Amino acid sequence: MTLTDQVVTKLSPWSVEESVDRISRIAAAKDLKLFAVIDHSGEARAAGLDLRDTKLVIFGSPAAGTPVMEAAPLAALDLPLRVLVWADGHQTKLAYTAPTALAARYGFSDQLAARLAGIDAITDAAVSGNDRP
Fold this sequence. Notes:
The protein is of the alpha+beta class. 44% of the residues lie in helices and 26% in strands. The chain has helices at 3-6, 16-29, 40-46, 62-71, 99-106, 110-114, 118-128, and strands at 7-12, 33-39, 54-60, 81-88, 91-97. The chain has a 5-stranded antiparallel beta sheet. A hairpin with a 2-residue loop joins strand 4 and strand 5. The longest helix has 14 residues, at 16-29. It is globular. The chain starts with a helix and ends in a 5-residue tail after the last helix. The mean pLDDT is 94.
């Protein structure tokens, strides 16, 4: 499996801030917990460094993720799910580890792998203009 098979990247028609807000709203509408938004570029600025607008959105469902981590404790390195949102020139991009890559990495059954697949619908809705996955 190559890196491009392991990471899904999508273009967003919105700014980084609006894309992060859309992901957060869509996750909340699906009763997912927003664990954190890490502002990498803001922290870089605070340290006197320059970094393009870059944020990491971390969200998930303890009810969905716990059985995954019970089956494979190392999966906690990749959970909760996360989406990187960054400015790439005049484009905003979203990227995340492909659910199929996570399933392959940890040898998940189809049932456990299905617990990770919701990230595709959430990011599709965030970039499509449809606020409902």
